[in-house]
Amino acid sequence: MYEEKQRFPKWFIILMTGMLLLIMVGMVLMALYIEEERDEAALGLAIAIPIELAIIYLFMTSEIDLTVTSNGVYYRWRPLHRKYRIIEKEIIESADIRRSPLFNYGFGWFPSLGTFYNTHNGPGLQFYLKNGKRIFFSSKDTVQLNRTIQDMISANRKTRMREF
Question: What is the pTM assigned to this prediction?
Fold first, then answer.
């Protein structure tokens, strides 16, 4: 069994928070100096500032929970995923260690990775599924994660499918 929790690096959180705060200050200053259409500017601020504060909150609280058991890989991106998602071991064709592309933080889709869940640049584990899909996870200990995945794939299947 393997468990890992990953967060964005502090420098990344500070950079993103700083940029969003600068944008908010710029919007407030612009709204103060607009002589015409002041009501529309106030409405824009009332919409934009809560959205930017929510984004800052998400950056500060985001975390990838990654757990490997004998049945598969369980993962969730908190606070966006409430329940764990599973990659069952029967659908994993192979897994390889590889580097993530620069500046692909968060989760999404990238041509060479497929779906990715990434909190830092560096090595991670690329899963190749039997249905042709690819999933990439960044990892603090990629070698141990790869070893656990290889052991899981080669082990006998448990009778109980889901553990969470």
Answer: 0.75
